[in-house]
Design goal:
By secondary structure, the protein is an alpha/beta fold. The chain is built from 9 helices and 11 strands. Strands 2-3-1-4-11-5 form a 6-stranded mixed β-sheet, with helices on both faces. The longest helix has 16 residues. It is elongated. The protein starts with a strand and ends with a helix. The model has no long low-confidence stretch (mean pLDDT about 95). Bound molecules: 1-O-pyrophosphono-5-O-phosphono-alpha-D-ribofuranose. 1-O-pyrophosphono-5-O-phosphono-alpha-D-ribofuranose (PRP) binds next to strand 9 and helix 7. Keywords: Amino-acid biosynthesis, ATP-binding, Cytoplasm, Glycosyltransferase, Histidine biosynthesis, Nucleotide-binding, Transferase.
Amino acid sequence: MTIAIALTKGRLEKASIAMLKKEGYGVEALKEKGRTLVFEDTQKDIRYFLVKPNDCITYVQHGVADIGIVGKDTLMEGSDDYYELLDLNIGKCRFILGGLKGHNPFDKLGHITIGTKYPNVAKAYFMEKGREIECIKIDGSVELAPLLGLCDGIVDIMETGDTLRENGLVVFDTLCELSARVIVNKASLKLKQTAVCAVLEDLQRGSEAC
Ligand code: PRP
């Protein structure tokens, strides 16, 4: 029974492929992928594909992928019609509230504008603190937004902190810690239980070694 695994392109790509390789999965082709999008490990009967973070959830929810490896940041922002079953302990980073030194958005009276790729996360965080905000959705290089005066602050992921530092921005608060998670299609867990659980056990072992 073939198991389809959706891997997330970009930030998590290298670490998740490395973990699969360490656990004996045939992911060699994924490292020299060129423009190819789907890869087969015929020995283990697994099909892999590399997709953008939000698409990883979409493929799993629709059952095209049985298993997905994706960041908790993406899961917190998106819909949740899947099982989140494992923390892989890779791709560790955090959600932060950042901005220009001396300009903490919470100190502002009145209207707060936040630039972010994660408007749902940002709104929920400020709501919990009793403040309503306006979110401006930004798709990349979020640090640019407060620098150019587009917003009062940003809610974004921070890994090393280099991007913030190099642009003269500071952290005002940490919302939560983040890492790569394993999600599973609800029907796949019932219908392909043995094969899915075998992969989960391997990944669990991999995550414990991290
Ligand atoms: C993320 C995030 C920050 C940066 C933080 O962007 O939005 O810009 O990484 O990482 P650091 O703390 O290690 O500097 P990403 O690299 O995913 O690219 P993007 O700006 O195109 O979204």
